[in-house]
Amino acid sequence: MVKICCIGAGYVGGPTMAVIALKCPSVEVAVVDISVARITAWNSDVLPIYEPGLDEVVKQRRGKNLFFSTDVEKHVSEADIIFVSVNTPTKTRGLGAGKAADLTYWESAARMIADVSKSDKIVVEKSTVPVKTAEAIERILTHNSKGIKYQILSNPEFLAEGTAIEDLFNPDRVLIGGRETTEGQEAIKALKAVYAHWVPEERIICTNLWSAELSKLAANAFLAQRISSVNAMSALCEATGADVSQVSHAVGKDTRIGPKFLNASVGFGGSCFQKDILNLVYICECNGLTEVANYWKQVIKVNDYQKNRFVNRIVSSMFNTVSGKKIAVLGFAFKKDTGDTRETPAIDVCNGLLGDNARLNIYDPEVTEDQIKRDLSMKKFDWDHPFHLQPMSPTSTKQVNVVWDAYEAAKDAHGLCIITEWDEFKKLDYKKIFDSMQKPAFVFDGRNIVNAEKLREIGFIVYSIGKPLDPWLKDMPAVA
């Protein structure tokens, strides 16, 4: 029986291994992590992450050929294939601070593998890593090998949160990069055989190590670039009276461009886009490619600009101050159908409003009060360290109130911001909400999910990103 071990029981490791266990009943899969709380949750009825369909997959295979354990060394020692899916936060100090990936957790995982291994291993990079990480890991393992042979593969994930299980069941492609040696090709073949249980062979792409590592960064950079491009257009649409939805629809009809990732919004979030672009920028700079680095930096600058623009619209609309005013914030996760708040635009929007002394009522169906308050108190990049190494959240933030539904959030509020496109926000009784709010009542739709005209008929003053402006907003500045 082939034994697989995954180091890291997070958003990538947990779902990926659960699906491998489901699709390969003859393979034993162990997911290991040093966090007792996280492993306990994986073994309970309430999993540590929310992802549609994940619950059913885990419950089908857990205890049969899928195991969650804190006994890291035992499972690593017994495994034939070891996936490493540990945190790769952005460095906050030293060489490359603010851009380069911090490989501390990767390096310690590699040293631990070398310490406990008694048989040859295939070590698979699963977390997003900078180009040439495989080479560094290879050196650590080779210099500590004690006669054991290691093959390093790059197998980046291309999961979209909210649809991760579907993405794993039916991937666009599975990418495996390895050495072009006989041993390297054998290792690729072994990993390919695992995925071949359910992925058609033509969708399994095999490359060299560096191509696989760079493909992951490139894919995320291209997707983020599309979002920043349409968000840049949304600012121009507001200035000219065009409608960004109509522009996106027309542009997306071109088969060379396509319609995906062309929805204007308050900005992109998630664990990968910004981090991977910063990583790409750093690699470009290290290779003397200043113009290329500046090109990709602009994608992040436009994203930050979009979030600032949204906050400025709110403040300028409400008589140029939100001090002491109650603002309802609907949605805190970075997108619908996930509880993930990493790099969510909500953090910057809320902090921008708090900076002007607003009082916030926040509601999200999947994000806990503790997580929201932790996120609003954390420094940039702290979120990407293992949970037990993150700073504890403050006991209370007087200006922030986390509530249990959208109607409670809106009660007595001066304005309502939609930050996450949860389906339930499209179906709310906005007449009921209007009646419970202070007047004039404002709606700031950061996801373009409400019918602005219907809301205006109710009596709201509405701002929708990239749409013709409400008469109230016409002469107000978009940027402070």
From TrEMBL:
Its EC number is 1.1.1.22. Pfam families: UDPG_MGDP_dh, UDPG_MGDP_dh_C, UDPG_MGDP_dh_N. GO terms for cellular component: nucleus. NAD(+) binds at residues 8-13, 33, 38, 86-90, 127-128, 161, 272-275, 342. Signal peptide: none annotated. The keyword Oxidoreductase applies. It comes from the Eukaryota. Pathway: Nucleotide-sugar biosynthesis; UDP-alpha-D-glucuronate biosynthesis; UDP-alpha-D-glucuronate from UDP-alpha-D-glucose: step 1/1. Transmembrane segments: none annotated. It catalyses: UDP-alpha-D-glucose + 2 NAD(+) + H2O = UDP-alpha-D-glucuronate + 2 NADH + 3 H(+). Keywords: NAD, Oxidoreductase. One of its GO terms (molecular function) is NAD binding. The active site is at residue 272. InterPro entries: 6-PGluconate_DH-like_C_sf, NAD(P)-bd_dom_sf, UDP-Glc/GDP-Man, UDP-Glc/GDP-Man_DH_C, UDP-Glc/GDP-Man_DH_C_sf, UDP-Glc/GDP-Man_DH_dimer, UDP-Glc/GDP-Man_DH_N, UDPglc_DH_euk. Residues 328-452 form the UDP-glucose/GDP-mannose dehydrogenase C-terminal domain. GO terms for biological process: glycosaminoglycan biosynthetic process; UDP-glucuronate biosynthetic process. PANTHER family: UDP-GLUCOSE 6-DEHYDROGENASE, UDP-GLUCOSE DEHYDROGENASE/UDP-MANNAC DEHYDROGENASE. Belongs to the UDP-glucose/GDP-mannose dehydrogenase family. This is UDP-glucose 6-dehydrogenase. It comes from Olea europaea subsp. europaea.
